Amino acid sequence: MLRVHFTGLDLARLRLAGDPDVLWETVLSLHRLRDKQGESIFGDWRSETRPRLNGETRLLAPLVPPRGYFPDFLTPPEGLLGLESGIQALRATPAERVHDELGRLSTVRTLPAWIRSLAEGDARAFGKLISALHSYHQAAIAPYWAHIQAQIEADRAVRGRALLDGGADALLSSLPPTMRWQAPVLEVDYPVDRDVHLGGRGLLLLPSFFCRRTPVTLQNAELTPVLVYPARATSETAPVVPAAPRSLGKLVGHTRSAVLGSIGGGCTTSELARRVGVSAASASQHAGVLREAGLVLTLRNGSAVMHTLTPLGAALLRGGHRAPQGRTRVQSSLPERSTSATMLQFPGG
Fold it and tell me: What angle do CA 59, 229, 322 make, to 5 degrees?
């Protein structure tokens, strides 16, 4: 079990990432590509991704073993800003840290020559790593990025609702069953027994599509604390390559347009009905059509269901104008983030 110890200052500095982290998703997807679980969610993704790969998995596998430790430098916090920012931060990792973290891998398995060269600061080996990450990302992550974003946004809507209703305590209590808030300690199902004392630094909660079963955190307790956890699954979570939805022709009429525009950063069916001025049954029916068209995600939140926009739905509301690549955002009713930040800052409970 992992025990994360909070102080009052840590609760005040609790944060929820506003975007998926491209490098965490890339690294964790390597686990999903090699295991055989979650076939209903990842089966099609595996069968579509494998033919696009050209040896990247073989190269990266020793760095990211199926279980246990992988180097912290593979997932710098700049991954929240997009692939290029994350890669630049990875490339700038101090040589001593790379050597130390790869040394932890070498104690449990024999590493190939190019990784041993990487540990010794070989620039060509670092270039090989960057090239493999780029290629793997293009094959396994980029085609599904809109879907990944939509899943993270749906989870964020649920966590944000908990925060607005009950503060940091409610947010921490809303996390998946593998995490249990027993103030002032967050108990997390984890492969080893470990304690992390935040010491006033706060904690970044990072929902992830490719994280499954148990959450993940950094090995180095001196780094900015982050806890990666499985994003709350909708009823249909299999990643798909975006395509023109066949149901788009159904999206005609003032009421359905109003429904789409009223969902915003997430709402329940009853809230949607009140916003649009229709019955709950009518709101549910319209949301269902929008969901079939790929414009809305719906997930259960306790006894209610929560509707959120997908990136495609948000783009339709914007009139088809695309956000910068890798930074598509769904209109949100949650507190606005600073333009210089990549996550929400939450008040303490």
Answer: 80
